[in-house]
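Hey, quick one: can you model this chain's 3D structure?
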Amino acid sequence: MSEIAGGRFLKEILKRERDDFALRPRSLDEFVGQERLKRNLKVFISASLLRKEPLDHVLFYGPPGLGKTTLAFIIAEELGREIRCFSGPTFSRAGDIASVLTSIGEGDVVFIDEIHRLPRPCEEVLYTAMEDFAIDVLVGKGPGTRSIRLSLPPFTLVGATTRLSLVSAPLRNRFGITEKLDFYSQSELQEIIKNTATQFGMNLREEAVAEIASRSRGTPRIAKRLLRRVRDFADYYRKKEIDGSFVRKVFRALDVDELGLSWADRNLLRVLKEKFGGGPTGLNSLATAMNEDVLTLENFYEPYLIKLGFLARTARGRVLTSQGEQYLQRFDQNG
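Sure thing. Here's the predicted structure for all 335 residues.
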């Protein structure tokens, strides 16, 4: 790739990131869905501001795409503080965490996505940082080694994970606020799609909104991604007003059915049925048979298939349910 082409490519990526950020709600009142969680957060944030204390550390968990990162940004916005964003796998040494924490301002928000993937040495630095707003640094080598405690400005750590069980108990117990994000209802997704379509300048009929929402797997991120693909087709075919019929044609081209299941989802169910007799079978065996990554199956495909009742996790492995088998039969009959 030439330097000029590479520069254009980088600019396009940065523009897309800015556009994605612009689509995010900036306050709890603008955030659609997760009503119980929002009510609680309003209380916690308001109380911390009244006491002029940092908000207690927050841990969000749930399937990907439900708004954990967006809520971290909203918390910083509501507190009137800066946010520093990181991902668990980007840290490799205890010094990486120490470097971040010693450079933040008082009351700032530190967001760590995929916090369950923090290396243990990095995680251990967080223990005293979260509890005492201090870190212990070893100085010197050999017999002369000594520990010095460095004070940190009070801060709020917001962690996000799709795998709560993989967050160690010592780290998990240091979060004062732990909240689960649930899948979104059809009406909530329709509101999100309408808001995003307005920002895109799209003219969507109600039935078109409903068609997109029903295929969004209860997940705003997927709803917005599907809306972008509808916009692509609408621009290509010069459609000014988008109705339900046009949206259904788009999804037939994308091979996304009324439940939001794609060829890959059906392939998982078929492999489980045809190669493993419906199960039970281990996740590693299933991933190998599908030539897929284990984490992709576990984090992306499984949660929604389990929610639909098509797949079950058991102590012996994954099992295709009777509902899942009936779905495959209906799909084969209807094409």
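One thing worth noting: The first strand starts at residue 58 and ends at 61.
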